[in-house]
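Friendly challenge for the regulars: who can give me the structure tokens for this chain first? No prize, just bragging rights.
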Amino acid sequence: MAERPAHPQTQVFAGKRVLITGGTGSLGTVLLRRLLSGGAGHPEKIVVFSRDESKQHQLRLDLLQIRTATDEIVYQTAQGNLEFRIGDIRDFHAVGAALSGIDIVFNTAALKQVPTCEYFPYEAVQTNVEGAENIVRAIQAFNLPVETVVGISTDKAVSPVNVMGMTKALQERIFVNANRDLPKTRFILARYGNVLASRGSVVPLFHEQIRQGGPVTITDTSMTRFLLSLEDAVTVILSAVQEANPGEMYVPIIPSARVIDVAKVLIDNRKIKTIITGRRPGEKIHEVLVSEEERYRTIKRGRHYVIEPILPELRRDDGVRSALEREYSSADDIMPIDQVRELLVRKNLMVSDDHTLRHHELLR
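First reply, four minutes later:
Bragging rights claimed.
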């Protein structure tokens, strides 16, 4: 398949019924707001599917821009184009019921914290692997006319060394292979690295440590990470929906930085110490978004790399030359610290709670 430019934004969601699994998570909520904005067409209905009723209720309040409310809000939102549905991606029947009448599925449900998955590996398998399989099985078992399923993956799925990455790598293969068994449904993927402001990621951790007066903890001074905001992550996902062929995986072309430089920029001129704690279980020094093996079937499409399916019968290969000469790693093309500062300022990710910081600095 010949390289082509990124498509202009289309009305791909107009009149569609959309399901977001794990829709109350960091990614799910940003994706929901983007869909509600109607920039790519107004969906007929959006279903937020998750197992945490308190997060669902808080999201209702946030969307309505109010602080407290009665249970009536549940019924009010259910009557509009937004539906909140309690259920677990691990529960096959709950997944099947949630998929009824749906056109487009975003599978953002995941166990994603590396140490948690190391200590509870089978919990990660049930959510990240069996959850994906439940989507595929339900579409097949109930003969559901789902048009597109989008799997959300991670750099940790590349040559995985931790449970989280292993389970995400299996999710990738499950969705790619589903294109063979369910040719009427397009299964595609988006893979990206560290999301700057997502729940449990390094920037919110640094923010909190700075607000507490330090110290800021660094696991390894040589560690590097790609820098991607939640909004950028959603853009990758929506680009895949608009452009991807069955089995393709979209990867953003994004900057990378040393984690210690990110900490220095956030600390700025405050009198806060950093300490080196050592790597956590399963943690990588560098992120890799495209492996050495995958680069041979990777093309460039607009602002993304696109990894063609590993299964040859799904590839649209007409001899396009690989867009990469080596694996795509955060160790390459690292930004100098002034560019890191510029990026964090542009993304509104600098620590701004000056009152709390000043209080702690005075105590020191």
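Confidence is low (pLDDT under 50) at residues 1-8, 355-364. Residues 121-141 form the longest helix (21 residues). Your move, everyone else.
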